[in-house]
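Today's session is about reading a structure prediction critically. Students often jump straight to the picture, but the first step is always the sequence itself: look for stretches that repeat, for charged clusters, for runs of hydrophobic residues. Only then move on to the predicted structure, which in these notes is written as discrete structure tokens rather than atom positions. Here is the chain we will use throughout the hour.
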Amino acid sequence: MSEREIWKPDVTVAAIVEQEGRFLFIEERVRGQLVLNQPAGHLESGESLVDALVRETLEESGWHVAPTGLVGIYLWTSPVDGVSFMRVTLAAKPVRHDPTRSLDNGIERALWLHPDELAAHPVPHRSPMVAHSLRDYLANGAGPMDRLQHVRFPVAP
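Below is the predicted structure for this chain, in token form.
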């Protein structure tokens, strides 16, 4: 089997950030269409999942966050292009906002929405994982952070 034939999902992280009953979302342009998502993005080589989450949230929303727990790990394949995503969703608390920070290319704005406002928001979600992970968080909260580990080699005995 060639390397091109090996199935490899893209690994992404997403943040569920709650403040006073509202959740942090971003509106972004994907293939020219405006969509709604949690702050999220791809894991970079050598980066821990926690570091990726903190970086992506800052780059997309201007918010510095502190991860607090594991919400879930989701696998989804886009019906548009067949790309599969393994998404690690973490809860995080907002620490501070940098209103002068430029947001990533394609990000229109960051906004805080109550779950009812999310359901009524006219902009479509980037993927079904947006609503699914928020529902999981609202129903179950987040698990402890020690369930998520970045193992570096060599491992001490």
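Discussion point for the tutorial: The mean pLDDT is 93.
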